[in-house]
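Tip: read the tokens left to right.
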């Protein structure tokens, strides 16, 4: 799935070429700083910059023998540079290189995801404004509750995406952290000033304290944020899937010309992309759990996290990029059926106004217990017989003695029910 659906920009980040390029950037930055501080010859660093390169096939060939990817990389770079290569990786450990480069890669991927979220937020805003006054029934426990609008559903999602944008910004900041502090983080062979200057060159923050690695709570925050975003996409997709059910059909994924819904049943129009998103979110959550498992390592570091991260970081960023782009397309092309919304809203013959009647009776002086009993009695008769709820209320002696027919009629006004929609939109920040 990942290879088949990878979007070009995100996929390019996680290629071997991109990874080794970032490794080379880190190594050259360290050489640069050491030259600035007079620790290595400027001439050597100039030569390194001019000649440093790598060949992926050659790195893989060396790795087969040495069984160590960083050594294979450094050996291959050394083949290009020559004698001055002895100044490359000077005083560093593998994780100085790997974790600092990982920060660059994850930050780059995170920025693409931020753009995706901002794009989704915009289409949700457009859809919310379009359907601000499109009345539909709100449901709790899957049962008709009280009227709402389809635009409010979109505004709710818009607000949720806003929170994810802030979460992702925070996660990107958390992982934008480098370390050049040596085998156990003590700067035994390099002064802390080198780390500070290298990180500044790379626009990263230096880890205030580290072991051999950047601590993996940072990675866990990043991947958990991606999982949270995926969970919201699943929530949104599940709502559309339910609204597309034949018995409801208030909204529907766009069904393109020539599309097929079933190999057996030509009539089918299935919410297939929403179903895919619901399933894919499970992968993001599983990967986030793996990231949390990576937090606890032996002493100053073991390598149990490394193999996991080679899978979960590229896969999660690539997958979420795909999901966000797909769901943005779903919302952009969503088919909305206001007529069906009104038809469904009226299915319960006015029961959705029961709370309005209950509150009107209590405001007139009736105890809540008695008012609830009377209103529920009429409501249950409507459920069982299909008789219009309003008519039963008007015929109930104890109710009509307190509420005249005209007042009961006014309690069934949708405009009154939805009079605060504009205020909610203002609070959400949708103009």
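Filled-in amino acids:
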């Amino acid at each position: 799935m990942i290879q088949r659906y990878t979007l070009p920009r995100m996929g390019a980040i996680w290629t071997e070429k991109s990874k080794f390029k970032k490794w080379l950037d880190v190594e050259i930055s360290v050489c640069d700083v050491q030259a600035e501080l007079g620790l290595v010859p400027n001439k050597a660093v100039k030569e390194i910059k001019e000649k440093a390169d790598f060949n992926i096939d050659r790195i893989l060939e060396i790795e087969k023998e040495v069984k160590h990817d960083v050594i294979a990389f450094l050996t291959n770079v050394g083949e290009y540079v020559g004698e001055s290569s002895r100044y490359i990786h000077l005083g560093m450990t593998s994780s100085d290189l790997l974790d600092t480069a990982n920060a660059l890669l994850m930050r780059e991927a995170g920025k693409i995801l931020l753009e995706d979220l901002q794009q989704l937020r915009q289409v949700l805003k457009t859809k919310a404004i379009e359907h601000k006054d499109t009345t539909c029934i709100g449901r709790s426990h899957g049962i008709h509750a009280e009227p709402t609008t389809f635009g409010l559903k979109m505004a709710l999602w818009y607000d949720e995406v806003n929170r994810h944008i802030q979460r992702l910004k925070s996660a990107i900041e958390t992982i934008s952290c480098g370390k050049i502090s040596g085998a156990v983080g003590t700067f035994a062979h390099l002064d802390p000033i080198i780390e500070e200057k290298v990180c500044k060159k790379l626009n990263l923050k230096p880890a205030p304290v580290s072991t051999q690695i950047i601590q993996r709570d940072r990675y866990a925050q990043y991947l958990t944020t991606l999982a949270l975003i995926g969970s919201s996409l699943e929530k949104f997709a599940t709502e559309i899937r339910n609204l597309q059910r034949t018995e409801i059909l208030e909204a529907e994924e766009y069904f393109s010309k020539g599309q097929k819904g079933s190999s057996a049943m030509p009539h089918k129009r299935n919410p297939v992309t929403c179903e895919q998103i619901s399933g894919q979110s499970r992968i993001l959550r599983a990967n986030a759990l793996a990231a949390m498992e990576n937090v606890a390592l032996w002493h100053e570091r073991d390598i149990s996290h490394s193999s996991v991260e080679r899978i979960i970081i590229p896969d999660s960023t690539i997958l979420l990029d795909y999901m966000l782009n797909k769901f943005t397309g779903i919302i952009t092309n969503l088919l909305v059926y206001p007529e069906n919304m009104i038809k469904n809203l009226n299915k319960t013959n006015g029961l959705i106004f029961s709370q309005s009647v209950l509150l009107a009776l209590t405001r007139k002086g009736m105890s809540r217990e008695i008012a609830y009993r009377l209103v529920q009695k009429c409501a249950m008769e409507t459920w069982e017989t299909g008789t219009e709820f309003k008519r039963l209320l008007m015929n109930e002696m104890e109710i009509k003695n307190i509420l005249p027919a005209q007042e009961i009629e006014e309690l069934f006004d949708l405009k009154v029910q939805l009079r605060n929609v504009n205020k909610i939109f203002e609070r959400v920040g949708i103009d």
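The domain at 351-411 is CATH 1.10.40.30 (Ribonucleotide Reductase Protein R1; domain 1). The CA atoms of residues 381 and 387 lie 7 Å apart.
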